[in-house]
Amino acid sequence: MLGSTYPKAIGHGDGNAEDMPLEECGNILIMAVSYIQKTGDTSIITRHTNLLTQWTGYLVAEALIPAYRIGTDDFAGALANQTNLAIKGVIGIQAMAEISGILGNTANKQHYSVSALKSDDTFPLDTLL
């Protein structure tokens, strides 16, 4: 979250940030792959591969059927099984598949692509990125 000092993106130094892990993990992975695709600069993913992998692991475990969480529509409060969070998580996982491919890790690319699809190959996630 950018915090209450927008347009200064300094976050919530007071510890009062909203807990939106599915939303935020998906966002950062999508932004990372978009940045690479637009700039060709892979230095960010090279430096932060372990953190990106950790966030993707969270999405693999939690995104398909989101628990009681808030999302971008936080005015509605916490809700379970939000479709928008599931979709954000699945696209985030596929973003990590793309990142893995860029890094030359074909095994991880395959693993994350399969995890994103969850045996349903009717939805062409690769066309979204």
Summarize the helices and strands and which ones pair or pack.
Elements: H1 21-39, H2 43-47, H3 49-62, H4 83-102, H5 106-117
Helix pairs in contact: 1-3, 1-4, 3-4, 4-5
Shape assignment: globular
Tell me the helix content. 40-55%
Biggest pleated sheet: none
* Computed Rg: 15 Å
SSE arrangement, N to C:
HHHHH
Mean pLDDT: 83
Domain Glutaminase A central: 2-116
Pfam families: GtaA_6_Hairpin
InterPro entries: Glutaminase_GtaA, GtaA_central
Protein name: Glutaminase A central domain-containing protein
Overview of this structure, please?
By secondary structure, the chain is mainly alpha-helical. Helices cover 54% and strands 0% of the residues. It has 5 helices and no strands. The chain has helices at 21-39, 43-47, 49-62, 83-102, 106-117. Helix 1 crosses helix 3 (49-62) and helix 4 (83-102) packs antiparallel against helix 5. The longest helix has 20 residues, at 83-102.
Name the features.
129 residues; mainly alpha
Concise synopsis of the structure shown:
By secondary structure, this protein is mainly α. The chain contains five helices and no strands.
